[in-house]
Amino acid sequence: GLASAGSGLATILLPGPVNWLIQNRGLSFAFAFEGTFVLLLALAVFLCLRPWRRRRLARLGLVSGGGRETAQALLWMFAGGMAVLTLLPAGWRDFPVNLYYGVPLGPFFTPGRVNLDLFKTIRRSSLFINLGNILMFVPFGFLPALVWRGMNWGRALVLGFAVTAFIECWQTQNGRAFDVDDLLLNTLGALLGWLLWRVLARL
User: Which residue has the higher pLDDT, 13 or 106?
Assistant: First the structure.
């Protein structure tokens, strides 16, 4: 009755991503829990390596300020989250079960699909998906510009291309997909991240 009507109204009024979160509350909670765990783990690794980094910088006569240290911590956390999001196979949660039943490879090392048709996926995907593929890589251009001295647009472009090319190639081995459109959009996102840093640095 009322609950069903409310659910139908939410489907009509709410944007797709928000409606999906509401309709899949249990899965959303699992993603939030896993994401928080990964971010904290990446931060812990950064903090463990920080004393070694500071001693190395001191030997070189360099000092890393608070802003740069914060940006580096955020970069570690973002990279950790992206690794889980992009490098693990879609069914990675089934791995322990498959291992128990004698299928040790589980979803890993399963050949993935390959799309080399430029703009094919972009044409078939929604605006939300295409923008997401761009925006998710903006930090890979923005944060390194805060961390590394001498970061220019060319290095941001190469970094974005190298990271996304590694991800796309890796996904051919875990049952996911290499998509040339993802390579294009992700690299564009990294370049836009550097441009955003450049604009803010001049303010």
Answer: 106
DSSP state of 174: B
Reduced 3-state DSSP string for the chain = CHHHHHHHHHHHHCCHHHHHHHHCHHHHHHHHHHHHHHHHHHHHHHHHHHHHHHHHHHHCCCCCCHHHHHHHHHHHHHHHHHHHHHHCCCCHHHHHHHHHCCCCCCCCCECCEEECCCCHHHHHCCHHHHHHHHHCCCHHHHHHHHHCCCCCHHHHHHHHHHHHHHHHHHHCCECCEEEHHHHHHHHHHHHHHHHHHHHHHCC
- The per-residue pLDDT for range 76-101, each reduced to its tens digit, is 999 999 998 888 876 665 555 555 55
CA-CA distance, 107 to 174, in Å (whole number)?
Answer: 6
What is the rounded CA–CA span in Å between residue 169 and residue 172?
A: 6
* Tens-digit pLDDT profile for residues 145-178: 999 988 999 999 999 999 999 999 999 888 888 9
What tokens appear for 98 in the block?
């498959």
Say which residues have a Cβ less than 8 Å from residue 109's Cβ, sequence separation at least 6: 173, 174
User: Distance (Å, rounded) from C-alpha 147 to C-alpha 53?
Assistant: 13
**Looking at the DSSP assignment, which residues form a beta bridge with residue 102?**
none
- Residue the block writes with tokens 């940006």: 71
